[in-house]
Amino acid sequence: MKDIKDYSLLAHNTFGIAATCRRFLEYASVEDARKVAEMLTEQDQPVLIIGSGSNLLLTGDYPATVIHSSILGIRAIDRQELLNEGWITAADVTAEKTMDSLASQEDEIFVECGSGVVFDDFVAYCVEHGYYGAENLSIIPGEVGASAVQNIGAYGVEAKDIIYKVEAVELSTGKIVKFDNSDCEYSYRQSKFKKEWRDKYLITRVVYRLSKTYTPDLDYGNIRSSLAEKGISNPTAKQLREVIIDIRNAKLPDPKIQGNAGSFFMNPIVDKTKYEELVSLYPNMPHYTIDACHEKIPAGWMIDQCGWKGKSLGPAGVHDKQALVLVNRGGAKGQDVVRLCKAIQDDVFHKFGIEIHPEVNIK
User: Fold this and answer.
1) How far, in Å, CA of 240 to CA of 246, rounded?
2) Coiled-coil region(s) at which residues (predicted)?
3) Looking at domain 74-211, does it have CATH number 3.30.559.10?
C-alpha cells in the first residue's frame, strides 16, 4: 500500500494537468482497502477516488486525499465458484434458476477482475478466451473499477450490460460489501456510485457476466461500413475488436501526445416533441432511438454544427476529428478547459435549445 504526501497527479489524469494532492493512498488488495478506510481522518476529507484519470479534469491542486486502486488479476469462474467464494448465496442460485433458462446458464461464463486492471486488458482477455459481450467496448480508456462507477459505453453496448456483481469496501466502516447489478441503478453514464454513493466506497473487484456464444452487435455507428471496407461481412470477435480499435484510434487523440479525457460531453436524450422540432429544421440530424418517447442526439454533431470542431479558446481546444473531445493544446490549466466547456454549452443551447453536460468529473 502507498501513502504519499504532496503527490503529483500529472501521471493520474490524461488531460495532462499539472496538479498535486495533499495525500495519495493506493491499495493493492481488499485488506489494503480496509486499512485505508481505518486510517482516514477528517483532514483527508473530501476524498477523491480515481481510476486512471481518463475521465477527470483537475482545476487546481486537490487539497485533500486521493485514493487509487492497484488491485490486479483477471480470471474466469463459473457459477459454482461464485457460490463457493461468497459472491452469491444458495438463495441467489435458486432465484436465478427461476429467472434464467437452463440453456442460458450453460452458455454463461463469469470473469472476475481486480478494480485496478486496465479495462481494455479485460476486453482483450475475453476475446482471446472466447467470452463474448465486451467486444464493442474495446480500447475505452480507464480501469475496471471506473467501469462500474461510470457505466462506460460505446457502439451500442454499456458496462451495465455485462456487470454482474461489484465488490467494495465501505469507507465509513471498513465493511466488505457485494452489490448486484440492480443495486447500482445503472443508466446512461450514471450509477449510484456517481450519486448518493459518491466517494463512499472503494471498489475492489468486479464480476462480469459474458456469453460463450458469439452474437456480434454491428448496428451502431460506422461499424458495418468499416468492416465492409475490409471485405468482412461476418466478423469474428477478434476482427470486430480490431475494427473498433481502428475506428477509435482514427478519431480520438492519443492522450500521451495531446492531453484529453475522451468524450467530454454526454449525448443528450430528448423527448419526441423536441426531436421532431429539431429534425424538421435539420433533416440530416443523426439520432438514436432510446424508446417510444425518447431520442439520443449526438452532442458532437451539435458542437460541430456550432463551428467548434478544430477551434481553440486559449490553450484548450476542440479536436479536429471529433468535436466531442476537448484537448489540451499545450500548457492548458483546468480552468482553461472549463472556460471552453462553458462556451460550447452556451452555443449549443442557443442554437438547439438543448443543455449538454460534461461526462468528465471536474474537480
Assistant:
1) 10
2) none
3) no
Map out the domains of the chain as residue ranges: 2-69, 74-211, 260-362
Catalytic, out of 23, 34, 79, 189: 189
Third-level CATH fold of 260-362: 3.90.78
Displacement of CA 328 from its chain's centroid (Å): 20
Q: Residue 329 pairs with which residues in a beta bridge?
A: none
Cis peptide before 358 (omega within 30 of 0): no
Query: Under CATH, which number does the domain 2-69 receive?
Result: 3.30.43.10
* Cell numbers given for 326: 476537448
Torsion-angle region of 314 (φ positive above 0: left; ψ -120 to 50: alpha; else: beta): left
- Which strands, in side-by-side order, build the sheet including 20-27? 2-8, 20-27, 62-69, 48-50
Per the annotation, the verdict on 359 as an active-site residue is: yes
- Per-residue pLDDT tens, the chain, 363 aa: give them: 999 999 999 999 999 999 999 999 999 999 999 999 999 999 999 999 999 999 999 999 999 999 999 999 999 999 999 999 999 988 887 777 666 655 577 899 999 999 999 999 999 999 999 999 999 999 999 999 999 999 999 999 999 999 999 999 999 999 999 999 999 999 999 999 999 999 999 999 999 999 999 999 998 889 999 999 999 999 999 999 999 999 999 988 999 899 999 999 999 999 999 999 999 999 999 999 999 999 999 999 999 999 999 999 999 999 999 999 999 999 999 999 999 999 999 999 999 999 999 999 999
Q: pTM of the entire structure? A: 0.90
* Integer Cα distance of 89 and 106 in angstroms: 19
Q: Identify the active-site residue in 138, 205, 263, 295.
A: 263
191 a catalytic residue: no
